[in-house]
Every structure is written in C-alpha cells, then in structure tokens.
C-alpha cells in the first residue's frame, strides 16, 4: 500500500513542514476568530469571560491571582487579556499558514502551549466533595492535545518554514534546514500517539477526548505509533478516525465558526498523522529493535567478564 518516501530528503522535509505549518496555523486562526467574535460582541462578551475564569474555565486561581490580583492587574482585566491573547492567536495563525516567521513562532508556541496545561483548574483529591463542578482528570490528560501540539511545534522549528512559505519566497530563507529525521520522526509519532493512548486508556473519564471512537481502538493506535511498529498503518487509521470525527462535527455544527473552532486541534493532529503515514516515524526507540537491545544488555551485565576498554595509547597485543 505504501510507497517508500525518504524523509531525509530536503523536498520531503519541506512538504512535512508545510503540512505541520498549515495544520498548526489553522488551530489558531479558528480559535482566534471564534473567541474574538464573542469577545467583541457586547451581548456575548461576559459569557466567554465567565467561561474562562469560572470553575469550569481554563484558568486556575493561581494564574487568576498572578494575572489580575498582582501589579499586572493594574493594566489587565479578564476581557482585555483574553482579547489580546485571541488577537495574537489569530495573527500568529495567519502568519504560520502564510509561512512568515515560522521558526520564532514555533519556538514561542511550543513553550506557551504548556501554560494551557498548568493553568487548568483541576481537583483530583480522593474523597473531596466538590461544591462546584470543575475538572476531575489530570490536566496532562485533559490537555493532551495541546501537549502534542507543543511536540509538533518543536518538530516544525527544527524542520524550517517548509514549502510555499513567505520566509523562503520573500526573505530567501531555506525551505528546510536538512535535519536528521530520526529524532523528529520519534517526537512526532510519540506526540500523536500519546493523544490516542490517553484517549483509549482513559475513555469515559472526565473531559478525556476520544473522537467518538471506542477506547480499545484508540489505545491500539496509540501503542502502535509509540512503539514505531507499522506506524504508517496506525497513522492512516488515525487519519480515518480524525476525518470521521470532523465530519460528525460538521453535520452537527450550528455555524461555520462553531465547526472550525470545534475541530481546530484536529487540523494539526491530522497533519501530523498524514506526515507519518506518508514518510514514517523514524526507527529510534522502535519496538522491533528491542530484542537486539535486550540481547546486548544481557551480554553486558550478565555475560562473561567484559573485555576492558583498550587505551588509545596502547596498541592491542
């Protein structure tokens, strides 16, 4: 089914970077438009602000105090903070799709996405009776897609701006930096695999994304991607599930903005899955190499006395 495509080639890496760049850019274009539409509409503004700062919002008390009860609160309010962040999302998303300042934006978002993980209000203490509904699964599980996006951004940072980018066409920067695909393929497949593995193993728990698919199926796909065995097949299966999920969202969407906002992260996941299906996920830390590695470890630690290392200054006898 699959034809061999060499991910070490400059042309292949330029196409992978293009796919990741557009997929990641659409995340922020869709999210920025959806939030700004509500923030800039007076009758909707209070609702979205309450959505972010309430018990089921996305900002915990530590970050609320740091942002609005500290000296920063002299210039920040929840509304202008969210408006500025949403505008930055939209602008940076457009720049990514167009291929402008791709590497600086990739480095920034790769780190900034983790703030969405640590700022989530979560209560997981056993036996605690909550007086208000909030998140009750680990933040890393709820925000596993943002963690995956961070991994994608690190891959994009190392690949370069990719094909059809303004960075290359207008500012004469290289489309790709010619990096070794092995570590980048590993990061890409582990980042994507983690989304499916968490969705599969913890399906049915609070706010765990499953794409409407059975947990066992997601777990198998996640394990296959992480193990690096037949990962192109598993990535193809991931593409099918993501496309089905996006179709179901389209059929039930109340509008264009609502649809794109509801599947914004899936654009990036689909781009990563497509890249792995087309070019593979590298051979580092692949399960297929485990037998040889275990044999080497047994020989080192449990075999006969190891031969001492020879000095560079003393020839072997």
Description of the molecule:
The radius of gyration is 23 Å and the shape is globular. 65% of the residues lie in helices and 0% in strands. It has one domain. With 317 residues, it is mainly alpha-helical. It has helices at residues 10-39, 42-53, 61-69, 78-98, 102-118, 139-142, 144-159, 166-169, 181-201, 215-227, 231-252, 256-262, 264-279, 290-302. The protein starts with 9 loop residues before the first helix and ends in a 15-residue tail after the last helix.
The gist of it:
The chain has helices at residues 10-39, 42-53, 61-69, 78-98, 102-118, 139-142, 144-159, 166-169, 181-201, 215-227, 231-252, 256-262, 264-279, 290-302. With 317 residues, the chain is an all-alpha fold. The chain is globular, with a radius of gyration of 23 Å.
Task: List the topology elements.
Layout: H1 10-39, H2 42-53, H3 61-69, H4 78-98, H5 102-118, H6 139-142, H7 144-159, H8 166-169, H9 181-201, H10 215-227, H11 231-252, H12 256-262, H13 264-279, H14 290-302
Helix pairs in contact: 1-4, 1-7, 1-12, 1-13, 5-7, 7-9, 7-13, 9-10, 9-13, 10-11, 11-13
